[in-house]
Amino acid sequence: MGPLQSVVDFVGPELYYWALSPAIKIAVLLFAGILPLITYLVLAERKILGFIQVRVGPNRVGPWGLLQPIADVMKLLVKEDVIPNRAIRWAFILAPCLVVGPALVIFAVIPVGPPSAEPGGLDLFVTDVNVGLLFVVAMATIAVYGLILGGWSSNSKFSLLGGLRSAAQMISYEVPQGLAIVAALLLAGSMSMVDIVEAQKNSGLWFVFPQIVGFFIYFVAGVAESNRNPFDLPEAESELVAGYHTEYSGMRFALFFLGEYANMIVISAVAVTLFFGGWYRPFPNVEALAFLDLSFLPAGLAGVIWFSLKVFVFLFTYIWFRGTFPRYRFDQLMDLGWKWMIPLSLLNIFFTALIKLLL
Amino acid sequence: MTEPGGGAHTLFDLKEMELNFGPQHPSTHGVLRLKLKVDGERIVDCYPIIGYLHRGTEKLFELNPYFQNVPHTDRMDYVAAATNNLAYVGAVEKLFGIQVPPRASYIRTILCELQRISSHLLWLATHAIDIGAMTPFFYCFREREIILDLFEEYCGARLTLNCMRPGGQPFDLTVGWEQRCRDFVADFPSKIAEYEGLLTDNRIWKKRTVGIGVLDPDVALDYGITGPLLRGSGVDWDLRKVHPYEAYGDVEFDVPLGRNGDTYDRYIIRMEEMRQSCRILDQCLDKLPGGKIMAHKPRVMKGPKVGEAYYAIEAPKGEIGFYIVSDGKPGPYRCRVRPPSFMNLQIVPEMAKNHLLADLVAIIGTTDIVLGEVDR
User: Residue B87 in 3-state DSSP?
Assistant: First the structure.
């Protein structure tokens, strides 16, 4: 524990564990993890969609368009920042921050890798809150304020309709999503994200198997909540021009964009944590598959790799959806949410609880 | 005096919002502008405002001799230039009493059916992307590209074809064109199956189209609706069958009919029409006669007799007709176009009423309008 220990000695353990370590982790997570991931997720989406749609996708900036995200970000940063004349300024400025902020904050409680084996070592997550899952749900809910404020403050009718759509949609779909999470909680018996992952290892079973209905509801609701196809009505370009962000341009628009993609990653990461065994390899208790532990790598790194792989599968599914499905209509979306998913998720909780009680 | 779309049917109270849909809007297929009154997202009233693409084409027709007007017709329905060409040259031939040689007739039929496929492909592409399915758009453009290449090889142009002349065809088919066309026709049905695989049985697609924009056959007839819109409501009216022109009398094909008159039926019908077009193309290529491609006519055409002629054909979007009045001069005295898009657009407010905003784009898509033709 050479370098880490010397840093701890230098600043003192108090300061290190309470301030420095989380700050470094957040910085690394944000600037080396999430933000590059988001920008390259956009590129990946365009490339994969290109593959699905018999075209090549971006290929002008750098080899295979690899520098495209950088060019895009540069463009968005230097663009003129337009606020419409009759917009409500404070709300107009606040809205994108409300979308992107909470989405990034959620990453604090997502365990991308295992906690360290000995106390005082390096945990591969910012923090492990004992109400972690509740925190995720609570933070995800804040984004809806951003969308509705953005739609309303732009003083444009298309934006307003987009904002209203997104408010209705996100509130409706948070209910089944929350209920699906509850069923998984019943199995794990804890709300801490780390404990949930450990519970899956201990039971030797990813929760997706006993909770297939719950997982299905969670992911569908998650797609709806991140406003992605086939539930991308709030920004349905063929109907509402661009929905709630019609009037936004430059970096403010980019923040909405960032928020959407961050949300995709959050939904995927929570799905992996809740239902797919987090950072553990598939079948963590089967000795025959021990080579999947990648034990030649530094401790924890294998966990990060497995976690990332699982998240990428979900992100690919998101993009795949976009290449395949048409868009639901507003009222049909509400029907689906209230008439099918909520009753189904309640039933799911009931049966999960029943089985848990009987066992 | 009431403002367009204002006050006439409904009172503007606090519940309703007026929404200006277009002319700059991604899914109004050009420069259509709709003035909407919406209650939440439900459309209470809808009033189309046209004229943003008006170029005075009908007046331009009067300024040129008959034989120089063909390029103007390209620019009306710019995604289906060949059928426009045919309707115009047909009217001129009728006025002059020119008989077209059989080979030219067959070439015209082939070009028109290729054009029908390409127009329907563009319709499917935009209709699907309006409803949110992004991928069919690119698939459709892939096949449309082949058709445009065929056009380019035949007449040098891809969009504004100018590929017909009164009296016959300007060019014969190039070497190997027939074979390339055959290859396309043989391959195309499998591509239609590909589009249908993405859409036809898709739950979401069905939810978005079944029962949307239902058009009663009587209403359709009252409004003068033609083309797939009319046939979607179950009215058996296809000019290719009822008044066969060019080579359509010699080929066998079916006219698909809908039952419910909704957006889904019209989708199914257009898909089937593309298959039938392939059948027609196949037969035309088999039967293609040899011989001249241009009727005998004097080098310098004098004006026709004083009189008038109306000639209509089945364009991809419906009946397109040219009504030409001659006063004996080399150019038309008056040329009036009966564009299918203009007639079909009238039904949009009727169909859109009491639907949601999202359905409006499906309804605009299903009427398949081209604003170049609406405004002329």
Answer: helix
Given the structure tokens 């059948």, which residue do they identify? B279
Q: What integer pLDDT is reported at residue B7 of this predicted model?
A: 45
- Residue matched to tokens 């077009």: B277
Chain A residue whose CA is closest to B140: A53
Q: Regarding beta strands B33-39 and B42-49, do their DSSP bridges make them parallel or antiparallel, or are they unpaired?
A: antiparallel
Q: Which residues are paired to B336 by β-bridges?
A: B323
Q: Hey, CA dihedral for B133, B138, B141, B146, is it positive or negative?
A: negative
Q: Quick one: pLDDT at residue B121?
A: 92
Residue B302 lies in a domain: yes
Q: What are phi and psi of A59, to 5 degrees?
A: -150, 15
Do residues B199 and B136 lie in contact, with contact meaning Cβ atoms separated by under 8 Å? yes
Distance CA A331, CA B355 (A): 11
Tally C-beta pairs within 8 A across A and B. Answer: 84
Spatial CA neighbour of B187 closest among B284, B80, B316, B275? B275
Q: Is residue B5 part of a domain?
A: no
Measured CA to CA, the distance from residue B102 to residue B293 in angstroms comes to 8
Q: How far apart are CA A294 and CA A217, in angstroms?
A: 33
> Which letter does DSSP use for residue B15 in this model?
T
Instruction: Give the pLDDT score at B12.
Output: 52
Q: Does B17 touch chain A (CB under 8 A)?
A: yes
CATH code of the domain in which B280 resides: 1.10.645.10
Residues in a beta bridge with B320: B313
Q: Would you call A322 and B134 a contact, using CB atoms and an 8 Å cutoff?
A: yes
**pLDDT block averages, 10 residues each, chain A of length 359:** 68 72 77 82 88 86 85 86 83 86 84 72 72 84 84 83 82 86 84 81 78 87 83 69 77 84 88 84 72 70 83 89 85 85 89 84
Q: Which residues of chain B have pLDDT under 50?
A: 1-10
Beta bridge partners of B45: B37
**pLDDT for B5:** 45
Instruction: Evaluate whether B239 touches B339 at the Cβ level (below 8 Å).
Output: no
Phi, psi of B315 (to 5 degrees): -80, 170
Tell me how many domains chain B contains: 1
Taken in order A50, A55, A58, A64, the sign of the CA dihedral is positive
Task: Please report the beta strands in chain B, taking only residues with DSSP state E, as ranges in sequence order.
Answer: 16-21, 33-39, 42-49, 307-315, 318-326, 334-338
User: Are B29 and B369 within 8 A, CB to CB?
Assistant: yes
Structure tokens belonging to residue A134: 């509740």
Residue B90 is part of which domain span?
A: 17-375
B85 assigned to some structural domain:
yes
Say whether residue A159 is in contact with chain B using an 8 A CB cutoff. no
Give the per-residue pLDDT at A92. Answer: 86
Domain ranges of chain A: 1-78, 85-358
Q: What is the pTM for the complete model shown?
A: 0.84
Domain contains B266 = yes
pLDDT of the residue at B323: 92
Cβ neighbours, 10 Å, residue A27: 11
Which residues face B307 on adjacent strands? B326
Closest residue of chain A to B142, computed from CA coordinates: A54
Judged by CB atoms closer than 8 Å, whether chains meet at B130 and A161 is answered as: no
Q: Which alpha helices (H) appear in chain A, and where do they start and end?
A: 2-11, 13-15, 21-27, 35-52, 68-78, 89-105, 132-153, 157-188, 193-203, 212-225, 237-240, 250-275, 301-324, 330-335, 342-358
C-alpha B61/C-alpha B70 separation (Å) is 9
Neighbour-count burial for B284-299, b at 16+ CB within 10 Å, e otherwise: bbeebeeeebbbeeee
Judge whether B264 is closer than 8 Å to chain A, CB to CB. no
Complex ipTM, two decimals?
A: 0.77
- Cα separation, B151 vs A292, in Å, equals 57
